[in-house]
Every structure is written in C-alpha cells, then in structure tokens.
Amino acid sequence: MPNYIEFLIEKNKVVDPTTLLYQGPDIELQLKRIGEAGARLPEVAALAEEKKWSQVQGIITGPLGTLLQTMNNVANAKEATAAAKTVKQDLNDINAASQRKDSALCIKAAGKAAADLEKFVNIAFK
Description:
The structure is a single chain. The protein has helices at residues 2-11, 27-38, 41-49, 53-61, 63-74, 78-100, 103-124. It is elongated. Helices cover 77% and strands 0% of the residues.
C-alpha cells in the first residue's frame, strides 16, 4: 500500500513550470530559422529565370523543407495553422512549376510564398 500512497502524492504534486527541462519551442531560434529560409525565396526566382531547375529543387527540399517543420512547431493557433498551410501550398506550387520547367509560374509562386510567409510570421508571433 505505501507504493500507491507515494504514487498519489507524486501525482498530485504541483510542478513549477520554470524547472521543467523542455520549455517549448525557443521563439528566437524559430524566428531565425524562418528568416533564413525566407531569405532563400528570392533565390528561387533568380534560379528559375536562369532555368536552373535542379538548384530550385535543392532549395525547395532543403531550407524550405525545413521551413515547413519549423512553422508546424510554431503554429499553435487555428489562424497560424491555416497560414502555414497556405505557405505549404505555395511551396508545392513552386515545386510543380519547376517540374514543368515554367519559370514565369515559378517566379509568381515564389513571390506569393514570400508574401504568405510574412503573413504567417505576423499571425504566429503577434
């Protein structure tokens, strides 16, 4: 019976959140990652103009692929999740345009992704 009593005591103990090992995502680090990935979006447009499709794919799967994971970690409100989905769709549009080797569509999608990413940051970090 003492084990059950100790369990109840431990279960009902009030935990100080400042002493927890994991405090949630580090906002400063997440913003830095989003900023670094967002800075790569203009490169997509430049590479699309030069028709360097493999490099466009490299940016989409590399830094911008990590961007999606970072946004999912940060997006905790319904509005932020919807904005993250919009950015994800924009990145899929860039990918589709690069596979079709359509530079005009790729450039347009990159511009839209940059604008939508800015909206996401404003919503998620207000």
